[in-house]
Design brief:
The chain contains 14 helices and 20 strands. The protein is α/β, with parallel strands linked by helices. It folds into two domains: about 250 residues, von Willebrand factor, type A domain (Rossmann fold), CATH 3.40.50.410; about 190 residues, von Willebrand factor, type A domain (Rossmann fold), CATH 3.40.50. The strands form five sheets. Strands 1, 2, 15, 16, 17, 18, 19 and 20 form an eight-stranded mixed sheet that branches. β18, α11 and β19 form a beta-alpha-beta unit. α1 packs parallel to α7 and α3 packs parallel to α4. The longest helix has 18 residues. It is globular, with a radius of gyration of 25 Å. It starts with 8 loop residues before the first strand and ends in an 11-residue tail after the last helix. Keywords: Disulfide bond, Signal. InterPro entries: ECM_Assembly_Org, EGF, EGF-like_Ca-bd_dom, VWF_A, vWFA_dom_sf. Pfam families: FXa_inhibition, VWA. This is Cartilage matrix protein.
Length: about 475
């Protein structure tokens, strides 16, 4: 599809006087520094778990928790772990023919708190969890895993014979570096069909978590900054153990508009006038012609120390979700990435990578700057500002200048964002260009709204009439 005057939608600008991110002669460089700010925000797992509907059932599982209670875990923190365990158990169908739960407590030694055969009801399990006390010595994670695999899941302890209908699962919770090896015992467990989840807290050795966990590791490794927020992982495990007959009816799907159910699965569709994007989930309000349009997209990522390492990892995953929706090639979408804090660092320019795979790998390998924050001047044609706090420099003047130059500015505030600043950034009418959410997990829904608004704006602008592949 030919674009008017061959002009692509430009989403890249100069980021510093000595460093430019360019996208060809069609891009008019201006004095504004930032185009797209993705500022990370408070813990993205901070939503209260929602009811999953009566069709959600957990498949029969032999589940063993392996819980670190070494000296680094304070008593009040261990109580937080017990709350997390209780919340996961609450979501299970507990019974001799359903899910059986055992628990192994460890430090320098291993203490089996209760075996799989001990409690046949949810109430009895919850009471048993409340009675557990920390051991307060060293950290022998490998020894505890060995015990869980060879003893806790054995027939003598209540483990059932291996069957495609019964899952064998071990969930490890730890906050330190083990004093023994976990690699070999974890490999044997995975080879025997046991699914391993690893939850790390605080200063845990993340390499250890990866050695323990099953593949894919994105689904089997979790990290939280402190025990104060470990309870928020309960929802993830409630979903992991849930088996439903109608995923659409329970809302357990990623369809943006229409979900069509099939036994144990679903497909997505769109309302009339919309087309399904290549991700098979989201819908496009733009009318597609003979092909996608050129899109130059540069992400500017906050690498300041307020973001925190675990949240920075979540931002990288979010970026790659957006990259997945693009038609990446020399002719269509090109992606660049810049990280900033009190200084600016170009991670990779537009055009360096020509495939989604290479872009996503570069994003995953990006290191965290962890310095102060300086947000400032803005965008070419479309600007989207994501922020979770007050800027340390004069972003309002930059946003006003951007709007005077004809840029359409969207403002998204999260957590502790200053609403007056966001309203100053947003174009008129402010109600259509200003968004706020308390939790990062809902940012995907805001992203969908932004895609539609940007897309509609393009199709309505005579001088920029084109398709936007990312819409």
């Amino acid at each position: 599809m030919a674009q008017e005057k061959g002009v692509p939608l430009q989403l890249a600008v100069r980021v510093a006087p000595t460093m430019k991110v360019t996208s060809g002669p069609a891009l008019a460089l201006c004095s504004l520094r930032l185009l797209l700010l993705l500022l990370q925000v408070p813990d993205c797992l901070g939503l209260v778990p929602q009811p999953r509907g009566h069709l959600c059932r957990t498949r029969p599982t032999d589940l063993v928790f392996v819980v670190d209670s070494s000296r680094s875990v304070r008593p009040v923190e261990f109580e937080k772990v017990k709350v997390f365990l209780s919340q996961v158990i609450e979501s299970l169908d507990v019974g001799p023919n359903a899910t059986r739960v055992g628990l192994v407590n460890y430090a320098s030694t291993v203490k089996p708190e209760f075996p799989l055969r001990a409690h046949g009801s949810k109430a009895a399990l919850l009471q048993a969890v409340r009675r557990i006390q920390p051991l307060s010595t060293g950290t022998m994670t490998g020894l505890a895993l060995q015990f869980a695999i060879t003893k806790a899941l054995s027939d003598a302890e209540g483990g059932r014979a291996r069957s495609p209908d019964i899952s064998k699962v071990v969930i490890v919770v730890t906050d330190g570096r083990p004093q023994d090896s976990v690699r070999d015992v974890s490999e044997r467990a995975r080879a025997s069909g046991i699914e391993l989840f690893a939850i790390g807290v605080g200063r845990v050795d993340k390499a250890t978590l990866r050695q323990i966990a099953s593949e894919p590791q994105d689904e089997h490794v979790d990290y939280v900054e402190s025990y104060n927020v470990i309870e928020k992982l309960a929802k993830k495990f409630q979903e992991a153990f849930c088996v439903v007959s109608d995923l659409c009816a329970t809302g357990d799907h990623d369809c943006e508009q229409v979900c069509i159910s099939s036994p144990g699965s679903y497909t997505c569709a769109c309302h009339e006038g919309f087309t399904l994007n290549s991700d098979g989930k989201t819908c496009n309000v733009c009318h597609r012609g003979g092909g996608g349009s050129a899109t130059d997209l540069v992400f500017l990522i906050d690498g300041s120390k307020s973001v925190r390492p675990e949240n920075f990892e979540l931002v990288k995953k979010f970026i790659n979700q957006i990259v997945d929706t693009l038609d990446v090639s020399d002719r269509l979408a090109q992606v660049g990435l810049v990280q900033y804090s009190s200084s600016v660092r170009q991670e990779f320019p537009l055009g360096r990578f020509h495939t989604k795979k290479d872009i996503k790998a570069a994003v995953r390998n990006m290191s965290y700057m962890e310095k102060g924050t300086m947000t400032g001047p803005g965008a070419q044609k479309v600007g989207i500002v994501f922020t979770d706090g007050r800027s340390q420099d004069y972003i309002n003047d930059a946003a006003r200048k951007a709007k005077d130059l004809g840029f359409r500015m969207f403002a998204v505030g999260v957590g502790n964002a200053v609403e007056d600043e966001l309203r100053e950034i947003a174009s008129e009418p402010v109600a259509d260009h200003y968004f706020y959410t308390a939790d990062f997990k809902t940012i995907n829904q805001i992203g969908k709204k932004l895609q539609k608004k940007i897309c509609v704006g393009i199709t309505e602008t005579k001088t920029m009439k084109m398709n936007l592949t990312a819409c």
